[in-house]
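Our preliminary data section would be incomplete without showing what the modeling component actually yields. Below, a chain of 160 amino acids is followed by its predicted structure, encoded as tokens that our downstream tools consume directly.
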Amino acid sequence: MQQQSKPASPQKGAANQEPVLRQLKPSMEVLGIIASFLTREPPFSEFRAGKLLAAIRFQLSSRNHVAMLKGETLIGYCGWLPITNALGDKWMANKAKLVPVPQEAADAVALTMVSFTSREHLLPMIRECRRLQPNRRVFFKRERKAGLSSKASVFNRQSG
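Predicted structure:
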């Protein structure tokens, strides 16, 4: 996995800067900032704290995430799990739960957390996720208003 994004520790700050994409340095402060950001609205506001914090901690320590910052303010977050295609297929059929596998055994990823303050931030974050995970199938679940959801996958081809 390519990891060219610089680590950072986000805090509240300048709002007039252009958004930047980063992988964040693991710390208790960053864990709290991401948890606070994600739980500002459903579906993450409805998650049990222990499971949510464990997932974020894993994503930070394994660099399986992308954060968008404007100045030092977190405005977007994507996190994923390394998985196998076989596990992803079982998950799609509701026959398995998503659990991470060692990076070297992973041939796919599950995008498990996506949150942003403005819809315009989504595409740049997804592009960065794709750059960091080339040539892998990506499994995800879309949560919609009114409690509806659907599962899907796409193959992430490396360009150029």
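DSSP finds four helices and six strands in the chain. The helical segments are 28-38, 49-61, 85-92, 122-132. Preliminary results of this kind motivate Aim 1 of the renewal.
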